[in-house]
Fold this protein.
Amino acid sequence: MPHWTPTRRHRGVFRLILGVLLVAGSIRPAAAADEPQAEYLIGPGDVVQVYVWKEADLTRDVTVRFDGKMTLPLLGDVPAAGRTPMQLAQDLQTRLARFVSTPQVTVGVGQPNSQRVFVVGQVLRAGAYPLIGPTTFLQALALAGGFQQFAKSDKVIVVRHTGGTQALVRVDYKKIESGTDVDGQNVFLQPGDTVVVP
């Protein structure tokens, strides 16, 4: 039987997995409570499911446009971005009351396309990744397959758009790997963040 020899890439992936396991083992149970669980906000690109009880012609899946609005029969353009599904359902119910007797509206999010992060640079699988829930830098790195061989893991930058400006969050993976600053370096990502690995 031939002997298997790990390559540098295999060792790098192994170190990443080992680091994630070590970090996961050192997380306090209360750490999850440090990040508030915010309600989902609808964003451009999301596919919203609108259900109007007993009104099949008004029940449909609608994509939120990049201007934050969606178009519905009878109502035309309706602002959707920046609202929770419950807020949007209440607004649609109020608007439809002019046309339908006591409308009952439910809104769901079929495809949360606006909630994603981007990982670029010296990773194995650069691309856009959906945010299914609270996601940390390490989790996004794992989704992207880990670092490439010559990545500068101590000089990672997270580009974050807040209020029309860009903020840079510096991440030093070597401090995570060594355990010297796991909480400070393993930042929670926000929708639209871009992780840049030089």
